[in-house]
Amino acid sequence: MASTSSPHPHLAEYEVWWRNHYNFLKEKGYELRSRYSPDWVPSWTNTNKVDLDCEDGIVSPHYMLLDARRIQDGARVQLKCIDVSRHPFEIEIGRYFCSSPLDEDPGNHCVPIYEVLQVPTDDHLAILVMPLLRDATDPHFDTVGEVVDCIHQLFEGLRFMHMHHVAHRDCMQLNILMDGSMFIDEWHPSFEYKSSDFKRPARHRTRTQSPPRYYYIDFGISRKYEASNTNPLELPIFGGDKGVPEFREDYGKLWNPFPIDVWYLGHAIQEIFLDCYSGVEFLSGLVSDMMHTDPAQRPNMDDVFSRFQILRQGLSNRKLRSRVAHFDERSLFDFIAHWARRLEYIVRRIPPTRTSVS
């Protein structure tokens, strides 16, 4: 995605590529933010402001990703530019999960692809149009019930992929996102803590009040197998998480990618919850089994999902409403604020979870 245009004093090189495709995208029905317009004049020009205090002064953190607004209805979308010669299956697998009847299955937590745009200047490049999602770990979780809802959806989603013979092969923490159901304000895509106009922190409700839906993204190294292939074997391919036990052995050895997916998700839950929150210890046994060093000893996703249903059946409403405290939210104020919310939920009869035992 290197740009062939002259440098811009305020844009990174990869941002210039997006600016060069501003008009093409607008013709296709998607408008980039003002920062990427060919006519952009920085809003801090001839003022006492600095760029980092302005909405259009924040550099996009991802070279191949950029947000846009769908002109037809104003919906915010995520654009992802991919090299189809390097990732030949990403579009095929993404479209497969968007096809009927899979797209109507509540167990499907694969990010939808609204459209695929062929880049006119390069036959190897395509732009995927998807919903704009955000970090699934921010804001912090507040209750056991919120954690249960999240993990239920993650187990359900990976189980769904495996049922349809697709191995994700990179389902690590950064490839788990959520929608914006919690948010009162639109957030700034390059600085999610702030509102889109950069005037205040993006206001939000809790996950109990407005439960988000969680999604798996990035099928760049995913593979779909024939149903008859019950033990597919592949050479290791490194995703974002480099800690997979199988990859520490001979690199030329073939491995089944499905147990590797189980390890990836177990490690993601370890990092997101067990390493950062108190009150989630009930997950430790299952997560430990998912991360077994011997892939033959790991449960498959059907077993993981079934065991989780048994675990959650043992959690009372009181436990589901109880606090999970993030390591940097353990002050007396945080404790009192949690109890105030908890009493409000009880009075208003807001249930502690929105997913149900399957």
Automatic annotation (TrEMBL):
It comes from the Eukaryota. Gene3D superfamilies: Transferase(Phosphotransferase) domain 1 (1.10.510.10). InterPro entries: Kinase-like_dom_sf, Prot_kinase_dom. Residues 1-358 form the Protein kinase domain. GO terms for molecular function: ATP binding; protein kinase activity. This is Protein kinase domain-containing protein. It comes from Rhizopogon vesiculosus. The lineage of its organism: Eukaryota, Fungi, Dikarya, Basidiomycota, Agaricomycotina.
